[in-house]
Amino acid sequence: MNHVENAVKIVSQESKKDFLGHPVINLVWACKTLQNWKGILAIPAGPLLYEVTYDGDREMYYVDRYQKYGKGAYRLVELEDQE
Questions:
Q1: pLDDT digits over 39-79, tens only?
Q2: Fewer beta carbons within 10 Å, N or C terminal of the chain?
Q3: pTM for this entry
Q4: pLDDT tens by residue, 12-46
Q5: How does strand 48-55 pair with strand 26-33?
């Protein structure tokens, strides 16, 4: 089993604390460096992001949950005008 599959299982277990049923889980971002792995996963129906980290030295997964508080959008022209 690979890290993505393990992360989905972990988020599925964690999300049962937050949502009922078996939600769709999307992998938003992932990175592997040396023996370590990190992924950001999200549930489209929920406000939380799950950061799953694999520590290759300890052979252990860790999970952090983050809540989205807002959303912003900026046009490049607006950013250039502020300089």
A1: 999 988 778 899 999 999 999 999 999 997 877 888 877 66
A2: C
A3: 0.76
A4: 888 776 555 656 889 999 999 999 999 999 988 77
A5: unpaired
* Separation of alpha carbons 34 and 47, rounded Å: 31
Read off the DSSP letter of residue 67.
E
Backbone phi and psi for residue 26, each to the nearest 5 degrees, phi listed first: -105, 135
**CA-to-CA distance for 51 and 55, rounded, in angstroms?**
13
End-to-end distance of the chain based on CA atoms, in angstroms?
49
What would the DSSP string read from start to end of 11-64? HHHHHTTTSSS----EEEEEEEETTEEEEEEE-TTSSEEEEEEEETTTTEEEEE
- Token representation of residue 63: 């999970």
* Residue that has been written with the tokens 């508080």 in this structure: 69
